Amino acid sequence: MKKSLQTCIVCGRGADKRTWNNLAVLVCRNCGLTWRESFDLSEDYYVKLNEGRANLDTQKVAIRLRNSEDRFNTIRRFLPRAGICDIGCGDGSFLSILRDYGYLKCWGIEPSEYYHKMTIDRNLDVIKGEIDEILNISKRKEVHAITLFHVIEHLDDPIGSLEIMAESLRKGGILIIETPDKDASIQKATDHKNELIYPEHLFYWNEKSLCRVLQEKGFKILKISRRSFDWKHSPIKTSLMRLGMVKSLSKGNTSLDIKSQTDKDVVVIKDKGKNFFRELLRILLAYLVRILGRDDYLLVVARRI
Ligand SMILES: [Zn+2]
After folding, report:
1. Strands 126-128, 145-149: parallel, antiparallel or unpaired by DSSP?
2. Ligand 1 centroid vs 95 CA: distance in angstroms?
3. Could you tell me which PANTHER family the record lists for this protein (predicted)?
4. Which of 74, 108, 229, 287 could form a disulfide with 257 if both were Cys (CB 3.0 to 4.6 A apart)?
């Protein structure tokens, strides 16, 4: 995968070098798209990822399902009743939710053996493969929607991948992308020292760069929203950081509740329910973050035109 880009893949402009969380990145001077200076992951990185690792414990599985159900509720009015392909479906939690709600003919594509095995155990229809498998699926089946949750930031050729998705969807087909928002308030509060900034994330998108590239590739933007991993259960301190009321106090990496593919992936909520008022405050702050649009992820719904 070794590759390095000097100009922005979205707008062609030059970029400034920065260091985020000990990683060298380049920030586009025009649209703000940010990318790692060097893409140094091996070709088969995701195929080999988690080899020999034990399955997720039941608590992590439950939190991921809860997060997927919240995401589903955010986008359900845009989802067709059948023919949804979740690319990079991970452990299949979103596909499980679709099945629970009676959606038919939904598939996944997942490169990692570890996650693919989990989807088989869950009886889900998932192909082990890379993103271009969607072209084979679309030749055999009608794909009405493609979802990409925390995938686009991992791709070394996101423009090429968006072209593949545009080709796989017919006119009117829906594309839904969720990715960390590089302009999110948590990035400012932590000076980019958090778990969203790490070597697997090759590109860091914002609303401007993502919407522009989608429009150029033949999509109309239907909805832009923001959410965080399992946001209703966010700790008080995390909400205060998202609201810009405190800066990260730790010198090291700030833990966020993200879907990552490492052992640190789901942080157990520590300060939940110490007493009623504290819990009430926690919930109010989480909702305030939501209302003010200060969540960590960008969620974009687009239609193929
Ligand atoms: Zn740019």
Report:
1. unpaired
2. 33
3. METHYLTRANSFERASE TYPE 11, TRANS-ACONITATE 2-METHYLTRANSFERASE-RELATED
4. 229
- With CA atoms as reference, report the closest residue to 119 among 141, 152, 150, 91: 91
Q: How many CA atoms lie within 13 A of 285 on its CB side?
A: 19
- C-alpha Rg value of the chain to the nearest Å: 19
- Which tokens belong to 96? 């499980």
Residue 129 burial (10 A CB sphere; 0-12, 13-18, 19+): middle
List the domain boundaries for the chain: 46-233+289-304
Q: In the chain, helix, strand, coil percent, each to 5?
A: 35, 20, 45
Among the residues of the chain, which ranges form H helices?
45-48, 58-75, 93-100, 113-121, 133-140, 158-168, 185-189, 207-216, 236-242, 276-291
Nearest to 176 by CA among 100, 258, 94: 94
pLDDT along the chain (305 residues), means of 10: 85 97 97 95 82 82 96 98 97 97 96 93 96 95 97 96 96 97 96 94 98 98 97 95 84 58 41 76 97 97 97
The C-alpha atoms of residue 202 and residue 215 are separated, in whole angstroms, by: 21
For residue 32, report the distance from its CA to the centre of ligand 1, in Å: 6
Topology of the domain covering 46-233+289-304: Rossmann fold (3.40.50)
Residue listed under structure tokens 């992308």: 177
Query: In this structure, which residues have their CB less than 5 angstroms from ion ligand 1?
Result: 8, 10-11, 28, 30-31, 33
pLDDT digits (tens, 9 = 90+) for 42-84: 888 887 877 778 778 889 999 999 999 999 999 999 999 999 9
CA 65/CA 99 separation, integer angstroms: 12
Q: How far is the CA of 11 from the centre of ligand 1 (A)?
A: 4
Pairing relationship of beta strands 174-180 and 145-149 according to DSSP bridges: parallel
